[in-house]
Specification:
Elements lengths: L2 H23 L1 H25 L6 H14 L6 E3 L4 H9 L1 E4 L2 E6 L2 E7 L4 H4 L7 E5 L2 E2 L5 H8 L6 E7 L7 E6 L1 E4 L5 E4 L4 E5 L7 H14 L4 E5 L8 H8 L8 E7 L6 E4 L11 E5 L6 H11 L4 E4 L7 E7 L5 E10 L30 E3 L5 E3 L8 E2 L7 H8 L2 H12 L13 H10 L10 H15 L3 H19 L2 H4 L1 H24 L6 H10 L2 H7 L4
Parallel strand pairs: 11-12, 12-15, 15-16, 16-21
Antiparallel strand pairs: 1-18, 2-9, 3-4, 5-6, 5-7, 7-8, 10-11, 13-14, 13-18, 17-18, 19-20
Length: 552
């Protein structure tokens, strides 16, 4: 082949590639592909509907198709049918019409697990631990928790009655309530963990979240707080603007908090603090864990980037995507990802690959080779590629199998109800301690209860035994396997003693909530929560605090 012919062939191939690329990017071709595939989908469904052996529910089947399509994009782009719009509004605004009671299905029964202070449920005599059997004469024992919750909700100023079974009462009790506008607080608790350290628990990012945090910090300072702990553990995020408002409590006016970048230029924006801060000098710790996502990560990431406070806990969730909602026909909506957000240092918190996810959805281990380095204001190195890495990582003790069993089967919850019935009052929540005698009473109460459980070691042993039989090694090792099994069974007999500290912490949490609601549940953990204890420790060591933030 001559050089001229070779060049001609290369030029022809290159031209073909360019033409193919141009034809693929032609908008009319794209619209044709959309129309073609929609036609295929409609034709396919008609044939399935006409020919499939069983009756086809069009709403269910098509929603499955829509959900699968959107799931292929990312976990946060969702279709919201008309039936789910009210729940979506509650998530966005934190408001609904109801009585202020939270229920859950425990051991097959719908039980009241928390009351919101100041609302109808608490004022009219409903109690944590009550089993709901009827709502407005509708038997709910076979309904799901969601269906039960929907029956309790309704327009404000409308009546609703609950019939409950209460521990210590022989007959069902019927209570009447008037629904009201319930506002889920973004800050369900704030208070003092020591004489000079204030604590703010932030669980939502709905409207007014920034104002609630600002008010909480103001009041804590009035009570003597000279240091602050902001707890966003387990907070899944919410409104981006409220994340900006919350960082503004601790950062001066005019500071960039977050920028967003998307395919459309209209989705590119920079968000800065708009107001004067409450205090831009007060020592600050932000607590995060694998459940801290989105807006929580904006707050933690911004505080970290400006070296404004120390981040303590575990790696955050890793959701750096921005969603907006768009109206669809028949009163449905689409929540669609339109941009990624970036913290002031320029890093994106979004996980690089959805395959690097743990069972709870949080970001897993991401190889350092695919991460990028960024610098904080004081020159500290921070990384992108999946969540916020805390400045101080606290290894969380995994919940023991016996503690899990007692919790899942409702025995911790039920004993707290019994304890509340037997004890008219207790000391304030932060000082409440279960005595040795009281813990022994709990173990005695368990004596006729089935709280059997299988440990991971037992599961592995069972798997080993099965494989040994399959591969013909069982006869050689069966005595050793039997010895291990016996040792495990004997060891499990001591689990109520060996894991006493975990079980006691759970009992104290549940018991104090009976007397002091959410406040009690939070305050009872002050002396056992490893993250809070680590926060108190670093806040009480000014030199170490400055060293972590690169101020020395």
């Amino acid at each position: 082949m001559t050089l001229r012919n070779r060049k001609l062939k290369i030029w022809s191939a290159g031209t073909l590639i360019i033409l193919v690329a141009l034809s693929f990017s032609n908008p009319s071709d794209r619209y044709f592909e959309i129309a073609k595939n929609l036609d295929i989908f409609a034709t396919l469904f008609k044939e399935v509907n006409a020919l499939y052996v069983d009756e086809v529910n069009p709403n269910k089947v098509i929603k499955t198709g829509i959900d699968a399509m959107l799931a292929s994009l990312d976990p946060y782009t969702n279709y919201i049918p008309e039936d789910d719009i009210e729940d979506f509004r509650t998530q966005s605004t934190g408001q609904y019409g109801g009585i202020g009671a939270i229920t859950s299905r425990l051991n097959g029964k719908i039980k009241v697990v928390m009351l919101m202070e100041g609302y109808s449920a608490e004022k009219n005599g409903l109690r944590i631990g009550d089993e709901v059997i009827k709502i407005n004469d509708i038997d709910v024992r076979e309904l799901s928790r969601e269906e039960t919750s929907d029956l309790m909700k309704g327009q404000a100023n409308t009546p609703v009655s609950l019939t409950v079974l209460r521990y210590g009462s022989t007959a069902p009790i019927t209570l009447d309530f008037k629904r009201e506008k319930v506002k889920i607080s973004n800050v369900p608790y704030y208070g003092m963990v020591s004489t000079d350290i204030g604590y703010v628990k932030l669980t939502e990012f709905t409207m007014q979240a920034g104002k609630e945090v600002r008010n909480a910090v103001d009041e804590l300072k009035d009570k003597g707080a000279k240091k602050i702990i902001l707890d966003v553990r387990g907070n899944p995020g919410g409104l981006l603007i409220e994340a900006v408002n919350i960082t503004n409590v601790f950062l001066p006016k005019g500071q960039e908090v977050v920028s967003t970048k998307g395919k459309l230029t209209e989705n590119n924006a920079s968000y800065k603090t708009l107001n004067n801060p409450v205090d831009e000098e007060i020592p600050l710790v932000v607590l995060i864990n694998s459940g801290s996502a989105s807006a929580s990560e904006i707050v933690a990431g911004t505080i970290q980037d400006y070296d404004r406070g120390v981040i303590i806990g575990q790696k955050s969730f890793g959701k750096g995507l921005v969603q907006i909602t768009r109206p669809l026909s028949y009163n449905s909506q689409l929540k669609v990802t339109t941009a990624k957000y970036y913290t002031p240092s320029g890093r994106c918190i979004q996980a690089l690959d959805y395959s690097f996810r743990n069972e709870d959805g949080s970001v897993g281990a991401v190889p350092d080779s695919i991460k990028m380095e960024f610098k904080t204001t004081n020159g500290r190195t921070v990384m992108d590629g999946g969540g916020i890495d805390p400045d101080i990582t606290i290894e969380k003790e995994s919940l023991s199998p016996i503690a899990q069993s007692l919790f899942i089967k409702g025995y911790i919850f039920d004993y707290a109800t019994k304890y509340h019935f037997d004890h008219q009052s207790i000391t304030e929540a932060k000082n409440f301690k279960l005595s040795e005698q009281e813990y022994q009473a709990f173990t005695d109460w368990l004596s006729d209860k089935d709280y059997s459980y299988t440990t991971q070691v037992e599961k592995k042993l069972e798997e080993l035994t099965k494989n040994a039989k399959k591969e013909k090694y069982y006869e050689d090792i069966k005595e050793r396997l039997s010895d291990v099994k016996t040792t495990l069974e004997n060891s499990k007999k001591n689990d109520l003693t060996d894991f006493k500290s975990q079980i006691v912490t759970m009992l104290e949490d549940e018991i104090t909530s009976r007397y002091y609601l959410e406040k009690g549940s939070v305050e009872s953990t002050f002396d056992s929560d490893e993250d809070i204890l680590a926060a108190i420790k670093v806040l009480n060591q000014p030199e170490r605090y400055k060293q972590i933030l690169g101020k020395q």
